[in-house]
Amino acid sequence: MRSTRIAISAAMLGTLALPVLSATTASAVPAAVSAAPASSCSSLPPLPYEVHAKAVTIRSKASSKSTALGVLYKSHKFSVSKKSGNWLYITDKSTGVKGWVSGTYVYRDVRMCLD
Predict the structure, then answer these.
(1) I want to staple 41 with a disulfide (CB 3.0 to 4.6 A). Which of 58, 66, 67, 113 is the partner?
(2) CA distance 69 to 62
(3) What's 63's DSSP letter?
(4) Are 71 and 55 in contact (CB under 8 A)?
């Protein structure tokens, strides 16, 4: 019984020591890889604006109480020309309507930079 415990303990220690030993030998590899130029995530251009709702009302002014001019759907192509507070002035290229949309529903996704 005692020899079985010793054998099991030795096997467990061996399995625990194996990742530690392989990590020390693998640590020399990143030094060669780091010599390649790494591009910073922050140097990449910002992500495009996207509609994060089924549809967004296009308004005449940057106010939720202003006149509705049209509807911007997810499938529509659009461009953003200026920003005022949390409102974006857009041109809906699918319908030709120009106006303001809320930045709550139309915004850029955030790029995740992992070091």
Answers:
(1) 113
(2) 12
(3) S
(4) yes
CA-wise closest residue to 105 among 82, 72, 81: 72
pLDDT of residue 70: 97
Residue-averaged pLDDT of the chain? 80
User: Do residues 14 and 73 lie in contact, with contact meaning Cβ atoms separated by under 8 Å?
Assistant: no
Residue 80 structure tokens? 């953003």
**DSSP E strand boundaries for 16-76:** 49-51, 55-59, 68-73
Q: Which of 8, 69, 112, 114 is nearest to 101 (CA)?
A: 69
pTM as predicted: 0.63
Q: Where are the alpha helices (DSSP H) in the chain?
A: 2-26, 29-33
R_g (Cα) of the chain, nearest Å: 28
SS3 percent helix, strand, coil of the chain, rounded to 5, is 30, 30, 40
Task: Quote the pLDDT of residue 112.
Answer: 86
Predicted pLDDT at 1: 56
Walk along the chain (115 residues) in steps of 10 and give the mean pLDDT of each run: 62 56 50 52 88 97 96 96 96 96 94 80
